[in-house]
Amino acid sequence: MSEHEHEKQLRILQGPQGQNAAFKRRHDHGDHDDEPEDLTVHKHRLELAAVREKLKNKSGKQYWRTLEELSEDPHFTELLHREFPRHASEWDDSVDRRDFLKLMGASLALAGLAGCGRPDETHIVPYVKQPDGLVLGKPNFYATAMPFGADAVGVLVESHEGRPTKIEGNPDHPSSLGATSAIVQASILNLYDPDRSQTVLEGGEIRAWSRFLDVAQELATSVKATSGANFRILTGTVTSPTLAWQLKKLLTLYPQAKWHQWEPAVSDGAREGAKLAFGRVVNTVYVPAKADVILSLDADFLMSGPGHISYARQFARRRSPDGAKDSMTRLYVVEPTPTVTGSNADHKLPMRACDIELFARALAAKLGHGSAVSLPAEVEKWLAAAASDLEKARGSSLVIAGEQQSSAVHALAHAINAALGNTGTTLYYTEPVEAEPANQLDSLRDLCADMDAGKVDLLLILGGNPAYDAPHDFDFVSKLKKVHTAVHLSPYFDETSAYCQWHVSESHYLESWSDARAHDGTASIIQPLISPLYYTKSAHDIAAAFSDKPGLPPYEAVRGYWTEAAAKLAFTVESGWRKWLNDGVVTGTKFAPIAPALKFDPASLPAFSSVPPEQVEYLFRPDPTIYDGRFANNGWLQELPKPVTKLTWDNAALVSPRFAQKKDFAHKVMARGGEHGQIRTAVVDIALNGSKVTAATWTLPGQAENTVVLHLGYGRTRAGYTGTNKGFNAYMVRTSKTLWSALGGEITATGDDYPLACTQYHFNVEARQILANASLDEYKKNPRFAHEGFEEPQKDNSLYQAFTYPGHAWGMAIDLNKCNGCNACVVACQSENNIAVVGKDQVLRAREMHWIRIDRYYINTPSSTDGHHAGDTTEYSPALDNPQTHFQPVPCMQCENAPCEQVCPVGATTHSAEGLNDMVYNRCIGTRYCSNNCPYKVRRFNFLRFQDWETPQFKLLRNPEVTVRSRGVMEKCTYCVQRINNRRIEAEKQNRPIRDGEIVTACEAVCPSEAIVFGDINDPNSKVAKLKAQQRNYAINAELNARPRTTYLAAVRNPNAELEKA
Amino acid sequence: MSVTQNMQVPREKEPWLEPGHTYASVTDKIASAVLTRPLGIGWLAGFALTFSIVMMLFGACAWLFTKGVGIWGINIPVGWGFAIVNFVWWIGIGHAGTLISAILFLLNQQWRTSINRFAEAMTLFAVACAGLFPLLHTGRPWMAYYMMPYPSTMGIWPQFRSPLIWDVFAVSTYGTVSLIFWFVGLLPDLATLRDRAKTKWQQVIFGMLSMGWRGSARHWRRYQVAYLLLAGLATPLVLSVHTVVSFDFAVGVVPGWHTTIFPPYFVAGAIYSGFAMVLTLAIPMRAAYGMEDFITRRHLEQMAKVMLATGLIVAYGYFIEFFLAFYSQNKFDFFMTEQRLHGPYRWFYYALILCNILTPQLLWIKKVRRNIAALFVISLVINTGMWLERFVIVVISLTRDFMPSAWGRYSATVWDYATFIGTLGLFTMLMFLFVRGLPAIAISEMRELVHQESHGSEGHQ
After folding, report:
1. Angle subtended at Cα A831 by Cα A830 and Cα A836, rounded to the nearest 5 degrees
2. Using CA atoms, how far apart are residues A169 and A155, in angstroms rounded to an integer?
3. Chain A residues closer than 8 Å to B410 by CB
4. Around Cβ A454, how many Cβ atoms within 10 Å?
5. Residue B169: how many other CB atoms lie within 10 Å
6. A811-843 tens-digit pLDDT
7. Which of residues 912-931 of A touch B (CB under 8 A)?
8. In this complex, which of A855, A902, A927 lies closest to B405 when CB atoms are compared?
9. Ramachandran area for residue B449 (φ above 0: left; ψ -120 to 50: alpha; else beta)
């Protein structure tokens, strides 16, 4: 057997995992010259003459993987469908010697074909010669970026033997700064989602990509005849320069064709507001790091929107109460419904979204622009205080308008920032990040009109799901049916795919080449980490298929664009490419600030038509976890408690406590699951815009009066196993006129109730030493406030001899002043530690598995210590109208005097020499005594077999360094012990101590606001030891003498004394 | 007999055995239930019913082993539910038998004679039911042997600081000693049955079980020494088992668990519930098998007095828990007490007070103590009350402990009920088998009693 054949044989034995090693080799595409040699063994000989004949008939440049494919050999097609040769399925069974030899023979014969299944693999045996830089068992990290809306988050992806397992932030990337968000963390689960569509479909029938290419060229020829007058392209917001370049080339090929854009969860307000203010679309980049006073007009800038990770970090860095006088930012937030940003505000004013424009006008008037308006007295007072603060901080203040706010509010924000002299310091303007800024609502409206008029014969829908998320009144589906040929590129066979003739499965961003711009314009090359798991393609492939270069691989397209673009940069592609890939950013692409002239006078705005205060406003907002519905099938995000409501698996019509009381919308805490699981709430019919939707209500303290919030993204009918039929579909009542806010609806209780899975219902700390907080003044007066009023026990107060920690002593400090409750750590932990998703039914039974949870407390609200039933929203109290909100991440406390360790009968949770409470899963018999005895309730039990052990995709997903737990064992946070040990090994190899900051836990790494710090508390110079030495440092319920290693730095808010007086 | 009549001494107390019985009549009556009496329709129906409930228990266990403990209502924070409640309840019930046999024996309480045998049987069956739960409730029952101190090649031992390990030893020791004690006490009776057996099978089985008992003076001498020694051995166990069970809670940090009153309070509660269960069983049995002569009203009254006394100790325990929560001003304990009174499970607590404290006060009245129907109802009420007590301690304490964010609730599933009712069925089925398979009343001891009654001295040694 020649070496080559031997390699091939191994390749087959290795199965698909081996293919992933192709990463380093993927640059050399299409070199398949060595393949046909096996064909002689193959029964179906190729008719080379026929192939030549075929080739002659084809026009343009042909791309093909093998001669078989080209000849459309039916046997080959079948092989493609089965992915592996006919006998592959036998491999699962035990094989006797004879069968083994038979299969070996067959494999050998078919090796060439199997090897051709993927176009970009040339070598067959992985690791016979170890690739450079790859050590088996040691992960590699590659820089890439996740495109999302008008932003891209630079990431470093951990790859174990070719399979990406974990996403980390890229410190060199401006939208990441090393951190990521929950959505970015969870995006890796989408890669391995077994419900993804896996191939090209024509009317539901599987088709080869080559067939699609042929059809595309035929279609291209036919639309060429009309110069594209009957050709339309629909995309989301495009920040990929290459895709834009390709699409624009298409538009030059078909001059009459049109490119439409539709992004359901981002408003045109920012674009139109910029046009209003500057006469053109600009991109606004905020610099919260330089802002002393920030006013957010319904902007959730810490949690959503372009650049939010960077903003969260800059903001958190300015929240230290220990800096110089007045160095702590003050944040004012006006918002209709509590968001992460609002929950972190020093002053929050709940206000209907429709009133915010009036508020902005009043503020502009206060600063001398536009005419004064009258506001209710308490709002006026609030505004006056905020305005005077902003004015005092002239040049270092910042006003941010929300993504969902109107153009007028955005224009007013620009004007106010200009009036305050903030432009150029706390914010600056650049050219738009979007490749083609457009009013997307108009754009979609035009497309619908054209489709309706029968003007569209060919429609390419590149991503997105308009059949589900287009405004209800556009009736997109019926119009789509009038299109002769619609091609839908999408990762799932979703609501839209069902109405399109062609469905092309879309590659995940970790599977294909592309590029994208960050919020400040910096471009990144998106490099794939793994060859596509299925027969998937990217938007670049589709764009190329209809161009004059069909079959152009995305890699070539990206290289092609950057070759052109690099001419303007200091680099050439050849010299820069490797660096760009290595760094994750394309050098020198950050947009330079521009200074557009303000052409806007607030006085020029039309008279404000105010809405009577008793009128109910319905708001449409993207969901905080599954966004506009595109992540509906992501179990991590579905099970992630939404930051403020702590709901999972559902959306709900959010109402204020007073509204709920008035309408008699009850909450019932169910005995099964209780406050930590199951709440049944009233179901309502919401009749709005001539349509109706039935939703469960949720009473949310801090919500503006007469505001009902409907989160988008739920009620999917074709999302996949995880996401279908969860929650209600708010798009059903959302029309183009009321895209963000609707008035005049009817909300009526149906009399039914519905179980909602809420992981934390009780919101009061019950006067316990759990969440210490104070105002800045109080803190300055009494820095030890967190320790007062509570007993602190003697350290040696134990029956058992205390442990000594001669080496390292790992500890964690969590700064509650920095934590904004964004949930990124929860998903990061889930990804790092192979934590199972349990499903709604189990969350209802209070059995979710998150190792770190974010507790949310409302301070100064009635507690069950005062009354008997409070601590929830069933009893209205005025304090619930606008409570002060705090978040507290709770991982395992790794107690030195751990109650869990003492009670385990089999020693399955034991104390390590470095102070960790180690879980020995093999030893655990599941008495759950440790969990009962855990005062922090951080232990999680596998009540059933929660892990999916069968689905092969999930096997690829898992972190090989963390045990996958089976049923019947307890688990909990380990301080990422695998990371500790990795660094320890590295340090020992280099014969040096472990450096401070070298070990970074998953939650610490992901945290946008740097709230979590891990390290060695035995080292007085470590960052964590210094934090723990601060006076704000306290332990939860220290009086129990569990001596937790995880401690907290008390929260300090910076309220305005003028407003406090009231 | 004539002596007593002549002396005209008014009997202060009724006899422990109705008059007119001879050695033979006692033996006949008791042995007939095992040897001669045909299986009545009542017994058959009862056995069939309880047997089918046991099958349900098997079904519930099979499903449990297939799916995991997640089929129950437990969750985080309530990691222990029905399984542990039932465990403690059954162990408590298992206290009466050994207490009656051993402690009352040492204290020379004659009245124990007619009830000790089946009380001991009840103990064994209750301990068997109790013993099921710790095994069933583990997440990985096939690994439960990790709790045994066997010499593992890995050199790993159980974790001896854990009360659960103490439990393993306490319960298994108690079960073993109770079994031996019961069996030793049975020996003379088994020999009697062997001698009276008519069929071959009975002769073989009772012959083997009686271990060559011939009734010689030497046998009797050894027997009595062994019985006395075993009684001495069993006595501390009666106190230690529930003390150790209470440590499961008292050692924990959970408010509502962490209290030093638990050991005496648990032991008193155990005796309380044990006597209630003896009454619950004795009253129907004496009626069904015509044993009113042996288990007299006076016996029942005596047991009612024990219940009243232990019930008062339990009430004192509740009071002290309550008092200390206020007196200590420990906010967690205080809150827990407040939750018992006002929290979502307050009705359980009120029902508990009604069952365990208020209802037994009726036993102060002699008429009630001597009213068999009333005693039967009260015994059932106390059994329920003691189950509720364990529910209040185990579950309610866990629902709301230190972290309000993690507060939850518990509700049992159909599988919880199936397992609980299944063990009730198992217990009753074993009792059904026992009354027809072995002498439910100690024949030899009754014959002693005949002797004593006929000689008119109660405290005769």
Report:
1. 50
2. 4
3. 671-672, 674
4. 12
5. 17
6. 999 999 999 999 999 999 999 999 999 999 999
7. 923-929, 931
8. A855
9. alpha
